[in-house]
Amino acid sequence: MRERCKGALPLADTDATFDDFLPEALRFRSPAPLVDIGANLTHDSFARDLEAVVQRSRAANVTTLIVTGTDLAHAEQAVALAQRFPGVYATAGVHPHDASRWDTDLAAGMAELHRRPEVVAVGECGLDFNRNFSTPAEQEHAFEAQLGLAAESGKPLFIHERDAGRRMREMLKTWRDDIADAVVHCFTADRDTLHGYLDLDLHIGLTGWICDERRGHHLRELVKEIPLERLMVETDCPYLLPRDLPAKLKGRRNEPALLPWIVREIAHWRSNDEAELGRATSETAIRFFRLPLNGEPQDNGRPPQES
Ligand SMILES: [Zn+2]
Fold this sequence. Notes:
8-stranded parallel beta sheet; binds zinc ion; hydrolase; 14% strand; Metal_Hydrolase; TIM Barrel; TatD-like; disordered C terminus; single chain; alpha/beta
């Protein structure tokens, strides 16, 4: 898989343990239960020790994981993970890199996945004019179709945008009244783009990009401008390992257990209390993705015949 992003909580933690993979200095524990809204756990690098990765996330008090589905096969795998692990949910979409593969069969497969209760968002989908693995025209076509699927299913959108802020805002503006909610995940853009998104009543997902001393500087200033109730947090693992971790990690694979470090960093630059920020982002994620609270499933989307 290509690098993507350059690019209440149900689990008990009493028997959670770390295994030997994470050095002692990287075994964080969040003071508040966290929701990692972007975990690419279907990536090959997790195939060997997925069970341990989920256990370590619980030990770190990262109690809920939203597994990103970036194409049909990975979205189906994400659903399988959601069935296997409590506190794990899936998204289903086609990443802009793979937009050239969009066709009616794929659209039908996606629509079917969006009807599943394990799928809590449409995406990852969007526009990436940074690398153009699919042409801009193909990306816009696939994204437009997925905006339509989000409108039909009533489920929120999980959006990827890179170097396409202006076109993204134009397209979202047209659809904004038809879609329930949307989060721009792994936000790394500038102030104008941020406020454009906030004006469209969107949510913002922040990753460990902010921990990068080479390119995260502008974000350190900007994060203060995101209203607390619009902010969610994510690792985007296995990508975007925070660069300022207090110990070296063999293999340099990011994982959900490292989310507390990212939250601590965001809290620092926002002058928030870490626990308060953690609690707020989890409440927002539970509301945004309509996650079950205390075991009670919430209404997740509406049947397509209603509008
Ligand atoms: Zn992404």
